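User: Before I run my own analysis I want an independent prediction to cross-check against. Here's the chain; please return only the structure tokens and, at the end, one sentence I can use as a sanity check.
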Amino acid sequence: MFLDKAEIYIKAGNGGNGRVSFHREKYVPKGGPDGGDGGRGGDVVFKIDEGKNTLTDFKYRRSFTAENGEDGKTSKMFGKSAEHIYISVPPGTLIKDAASGRIIKDMSGCGEFVAAKGGKGGWGNRHFATPSRQAPNFAKNGLPGEEKKIILELKMLADVGLIGYPNVGKSSVLSIVSMARPKIANYHFTTLSPNLGVVNVDDDFGFVMADIPGLIEGASEGLGLGHDFLRHVERCRLLVHIVDISASEGREPAEDIENINRELAKFSPELTDRPQIIAANKIDLIDSIDLNNSNDAGAQTSEFKDFEEYAERLGCEVVYISAATGFGIDKLIEKIVEIYPALPPMKIYESEIIEEEAETGRDNREINITKEKDTYTVSGEWLFKVVNSVNFADRESVMYFQRVLNRAGVIDKLREAGAADGDTVNIYEVEFDFID
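Assistant: Structure tokens:
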């Protein structure tokens, strides 16, 4: 089954907690704190699998969670860092943020990508020893790993895309010029998913061709199958527009081209500038044409004069072919090879997340304060990390927490919000009385 879009949940591992421990050894008095640091949580890493061309792996498995780091040990020993979890995707897969739809990463021609970073391990109590605090009875907890819902969207990587109405011969052409074996039959929507094939011109050169199914008038609004597969056209550097020149189904070839191009423009205005070749297929169905005596079927009749003038206005060359007999296929490949060096580069999508984070800064100290009756609730990403690193059963650790709140201006902002003596302050389920 072909699947080109999936929503999944990923969760990196949490960092291991730091250890509270004191060195105890015979004949070694006052050994001091020796709690080790926690290990780092595992990352969630995406990598490209060149052998895949569908997201079927995500049809039944939608959640991926990395292991947590190990807690710190005694004798200043670190906890073990967790193994990363690797997710394989086909080349051309876009990783998008599910909430905003913005592109996080385009998995095209790149190496491994860390989509969710594991949390750092917490410090053991040995880090908190000072001349005035020689026996700290607290350590830092590990930080939580990143988690997010993402959308995987496959946009196939193909140099040449075969477009056109159903049953005009796209799959037949692909089966002739490559080793691809798409389903071929004489009815509409035979092809229910894009097919890729490699066209080997010679030992040193070849290109990838894709058969894009389901394009009809109204495809950009969801009619036919085009709504699902138009996205695969965006990667193609060259479009080969296949039309039924014999008009065997009662449609005019020029109208077919006009309708499909209109749908491409509605879906993505960039596609209007994409180079096109028109492959006039089913020339064998025209009785006045003798395919055995000419390499150029169009030269045998003036019947196609209006059509060729229309193609010239579009700036497209016309190649007459017959997928049923193989006539003109070599000439079509020659034409593709001729213009191949001048084709625009394949589109690679830039991340839409990195720029925003660079502007705002990921480690900002913003907080949000809300009031309900006499309770002030304080939240903020950085504050959540601080709360998770404090041992509230230890007096020195609580004092450390109070200093952080003062230095970060949280107490001042609570005063500005109207907090008075005796009001309750809630910071991620930790409650205390406000004292001014």
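Sanity check: Residues 183-191, 222-226, 355-362 have pLDDT under 50 and may be disordered.
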